[in-house]
Amino acid sequence: METIVLELRAGTGGDDSKLLVKDMAVMYIKAAKNNNLTIVKEHWTPGLISIWITGKKAKEYFKNESGVHSYQRVPPTERSGRVHTSTITIAVLDASEKKEFKLDRSKVTIKYTRSRGKGGQNVNKVESCVQLIHHPTGIVIRSEDSRDREKNEIAAWERLTEKLKKTFDDNITKEKNNDRNGQIGSGERSDKKRTYREKDDRVIDHETEKSASLKQFMRGKLELLIK
User: 76 and 101 in contact (C-beta within 8 Å)?
Assistant: First the structure.
C-alpha cells in the first residue's frame, strides 16, 4: 500500500484563494474515492488543507498534481461580476514510510576520565566522568554530575540520544520542506502548472498540454489530463 499527503495551500487571490483550496480538496477526495483509494485522515484550516490518501498506485495517480494551479473565475464574494485570477499550490508528499531514529552505538566511542568539578578527593581520583563521542556528527557529550560512573554513563547516553534525535527530526523536516518547495516554486501566477477557466468551462494542463471540461474535471476525473 502507498500513502501520500496532498497539501493544498492558498496562494495569491486573498479570500477567493482560500475558497478554492476547499473546492479543490473536495474534488481530490472525490477523485480518490472514484479510484478505490482510501482517505485516511483530513486536516482542514483556512487556506491550508492536508489529505492523507492510501491505496494501490496512489502516488502514480496523484503525481501530476503538484505545482501552482491558477483559477480564473467570478468569486462567490464578488458582487460586480469581475473575473479574478487566484492561485493555490499543491504538493504531493510521500507518507508511506515513517522514518524512526535509532542510535547506532557502534559509532560512539566512550571514555572515562577524572571529574574536573568540585566534590572532594574521591571525585577527582576516580574516573567517574563519562565522555561519549559520536563520530558521524562529531557531537561530544560529557557527564560528570554524579560520583557514580554508572549513573553518569546512563545520563550521557540519554543526552546523546536526545540531541541526535532532535538533529534527525530537524533533518526530516528540512527534507520535507525542500521537497514541498521544489514542487510549488514561488506560488505566483507565473509559475502555473494548470489553468482553470470557469467562464470557458476549460482546464488546461501546461505539462501534458491537454485540456478538458472543467465541470467534468471537478467531479474528480483527474484522468482527463493524465498523459
Answer: no
Contact 196, 72 (CB under 8 A): yes
Phi, psi of 74 (to 5 degrees): -90, 110
Domains of the chain: 2-98+188-224 (3.30.70.1660), 105-171 (3.30.160.20)
Q: Render pLDDT for 7-49 as a digit per residue (tens, 0 to 9).
A: 999 999 999 999 999 999 999 999 999 999 999 999 999 999 9
Q: Is 165 helix (H, G, I), strand (E, B) or coil?
A: helix
Task: Please give the grid coordinates belonging to residue 46.
Answer: 483556512
Find, among 146, 154, 105, the residue nearest to 129 by Cα: 146
What is the Cα–Cα distance from 173 to 180, expressed in whole angstroms? 10
| pTM for the model | 0.71
